[in-house]
Amino acid sequence: MEFEFSSHFDRQFKKLDKPTQEKARGAIESLLKYLDRKSPLLPGLGMKNFKSNYWEIRVDIRTRIIFELTNRLGFLLIGSHDEIRRFMKRK
Predict the structure, then answer these.
(1) Considering the domain 3-89, what is its CATH architecture?
(2) Which of 84, 34, 28, 14 is nearest to 54 (CA)?
(3) What is the pTM for the complete model shown?
């Protein structure tokens, strides 16, 4: 599956501390394996649908990733619950 990271996602990712960045990489890798049907979805990811093509996975207790799933996978935002809510209000 093709995927890309938005410039906003990249900027937010760079602001994270190194341990959180590693957890985020692991969550993204697990999601990609699941979508390619190479492994089951890990329960800790807590994948859920917000609306239409917008989905969320957990990185850790404080950090979430929002992605859009259509014919490609677009990582849009990484951040806290509050940042996710503000982002989704605009969609």
Answers:
(1) 2-Layer Sandwich (3.30)
(2) 84
(3) 0.92
One-letter amino acid of 46? G
What is the token pair recorded at 26? 């692991």
Number of Cβ atoms within 10 Å of the Cβ of 24 = 22
Residue 89's pLDDT is: 86
Q: How far apart are CA 72 and CA 15, in angstroms?
A: 26
The 3-class secondary structure across the chain, one letter per residue, is: CCEEECHHHHHHHHHCCHHHHHHHHHHHHHHHHHHCCCCCCCHHHCCEEEECCEEEEECCCCCEEEEEECCCEEEEEEECHHHHHHHHHCC
Domain definitions of the chain by residue range: 3-89
Residue 8: count other Cβ atoms within 10 Å of its Cβ.
14
* 41-89 pLDDT, tens digit each: 988 999 999 888 999 999 999 999 999 999 899 999 999 989 988 988 8
